[in-house]
Specification:
Elements lengths: L1 E3 L3 H7 L2 E2 L1 H7 L4 H5 L3 H6 L1 E2 L2 E2 L3 E5 L1 E6 H6 L11 H13 L9 E4 L3 H9 L6 H5 L12 H15 L3 E4 L6 H7 L5 E5 L3 H9 L16 H5 L3 E5 L12 E5 L1 E2 L4 H14 L2 H11 L6 H5 L1 H9 L1 H14 L13 H17 L4 H23 L2
Parallel strand pairs: 7-8, 7-9
Antiparallel strand pairs: 1-11, 2-12, 3-4, 5-11, 6-9, 6-10
C-alpha cells in the first residue's frame, strides 16, 4: 500500500504492515538497494530504530520565481531570498515597483506541510519522544517561539498585501497566479514542477487537474521567465525534512501473497523503474545509484524541468539525516487542525498567539487519546 508519509506512525501501530527491516533481514538480495538508500530517506521512515517503509516517493517544498519581476524591482536573479525575512524584504521591493498586473508578490496555499517543513528545518520538534521517533508521542511541542515566528510571518505578509494565500482546499489557483503574472514568488512542492513547466512551456491544459483549462494563452506563457530556488527557511535556504509518500508491505496469513508484494516492491526499487519514477513523476532519487544514473544526470543538466528538479534534489541531499520530521499517531487530526488554524489567522481575524495555543491544546488531547488507544 502506498500512503502519505503522515501515516507512518499509524501504520506502525496498526499491526497491518510488516517492517521493511524484517524483510531485508530475510532477503539478502534486497540489501543492495537499502544499503544504497540515502541517509535522510532511511531516517525519515525509521521509527524506534526500525525501517518500516519499503519504497518511497519523495518531494520537497521549493520556491518558484518570476525573474522578470525580480529584475523590474531591482532584485538579483543570481541569489534569491533564502530566509522568510529575506522573502518579505524582496516582496516589499516588488510591491513598490508597481508591476502591471501584480496582485501580491508571494502566493501559496495555507498547507500545513510548509510550517511543518520550516519547523523541521530549524530542528524544532513538534512532539516529544525525539519528535515521535523513539516512542509514541504523548506531548505536543508545537506551541513554541519558532511556530509563532512562522505564523506571524504568514499573517503579516497577508495583512500588508505581500502574500496572496489560498486555503488548502484550493485547486491550482496558486500556479495560475505565477502563470498570469499576478504573483512573483510561489512556494509549493517539487512535484508541481511538471505542472509549472507545462504552464511555462505553452499553456496546454494540465490533464486531470481542476482548473487546467483556465491557463492563460500559449503565446503569453512562452515568454515567462521562471526559475526555481531552494525553499526559504527560518534561518537559511533549503532547510527542511524528507516528505512525500511511501509503500508499506501489507501483512497477511497468505505467505505467497506477502512474498509477491515484497517482490513487486523490489522490482519497483530497481534503478530503471526509479529513473522513470523521477523522469515522469518528478519524484526525487532516493539512492546513490539513481542519483548517478546517466539518464538522470542528463535530465538534470539538459532540460528545464530537470534543472528545476536538480535544485530540489540538492535540497534533499542537504537534509540533516539526524533530525527527521515528526512521527505523529493522530497526524490527520493534526494536519486538519493546522489547516483550520492557518485559515483563521491568515484569512480571518484570529491572533496568532491565542490561535496557536488553542490549536496546541486540541492537538494535545488528540495525542493523549491516541496513546491511550495504542497503549503508548
Amino acid at each position: 500500500i502506498f500512503s502519505e508519509d503522515t501515516t507512518l506512525q499509524f501504520m506502525v501501530d496498526s499491526g497491518s504492515v510488516i517492517a521493511a527491516a524484517d524483510c531485508i533481514a530475510a532477503d539478502d538480495d534486497a540489501a543492495e538497494f537499502y544499503d544504497d538508500l540515502l541517509a535522510p530517506i532511511e531516517n525519515a521512515y525509521t521509527v524506534q530504530d526500525k525501517l518500516w517503509a519499503a519504497a518511497y516517493g519523495v518531494s520537497m517544498p521549493i520556491m518558484y520565481v518570476n525573474n522578470d519581476h525580480f529584475e523590474a524591482a531591482g532584485l538579483s536573479t543570481d541569489e534569491y531570498p533564502g530566509t522568510l525575512t529575506e522573502v518579505r524584504e524582496a516582496a516589499e521591493k516588488i510591491k513598490a515597483a508597481n508591476i502591471p498586473g501584480l496582485e501580491a508578490p508571494v502566493v501559496m496555499q495555507l498547507y500545513g506541510w510548509f510550517p511543518e517543513n520550516w519547523l523541521t528545518g530549524a530542528q524544532q520538534p513538534i512532539v516529544n519522544e525525539d519528535n515521535g521517533r523513539q516512542s509514541v508521542a504523548t506531548e505536543s511541542e508545537f506551541d513554541n517561539e519558532t511556530t509563532t515566528e512562522i505564523v506571524e510571518w504568514m499573517d503579516g505578509m497577508e495583512a500588508d498585501g505581500l502574500l496572496k494565500a489560498y486555503p488548502y482546499s484550493n485547486d491550482i489557483a496558486q500556479f495560475l497566479a505565477i502563470g498570469n503574472g499576478s504573483a512573483s514568488i510561489l512556494i509549493d512542492g517539487s512535484r508541481a514542477i511538471t505542472a509549472v513547466d507545462a504552464v511555462v512551456a505553452g499553456g496546454a491544459p494540465v490533464e486531470g487537474v481542476p482548473g487546467g483549462d483556465d491557463l492563460p494563452d500559449s503565446e503569453a506563457l512562452r515568454g515567462l521567465n521562471v526559475n526555481v530556488a531552494p525553499v526559504p527557511g527560518v534561518e537559511e535556504p533549503g532547510q527542511g525534512g524528507v516528505w512525500g509518500s511511501a509503500a508499506f508491505l501489507v501483512a497477511g496469513e497468505d505467505d505467497a501473497k506477502v512474498a509477491a508484494g515484497w517482490d513487486f516492491l523490489q522490482f519497483f526499487n530497481t534503478t530503471p523503474v526509479q529513473t522513470q519514477w523521477l523522469l515522469q513523476g518528478s519524484y526525487l532519487p532516493v539512492t546513490q545509484a539513481v542519483q548517478d544514473a546517466p539518464e538522470v544526470q542528463a535530465y538534470f543538466t539538459d532540460t528545464q524541468p530537470g534543472r528545476w528538479l536538480a535544485t530540489a534534489n540538492e535540497q534533499l541531499l542537504s537534509v540533516d539525516p539526524d533530525f527527521a520530521g515528526p512521527a505523529i499517531g493522530p497526524y490527520n487530526q493534526f494536519r486538519a487542525g493546522l489547516h483550520s488554524m492557518l485559515d483563521d489567522v491568515v484569512l480571518g481575524s484570529a491572533e496568532p498567539g491565542p490561535a496557536i495555543t488553542e490549536f496546541n491544546d486540541a492537538f494535545q488531547a488528540d495525542l493523549e487519546s491516541y496513546a491511550d488507544e495504542v497503549g503508548g
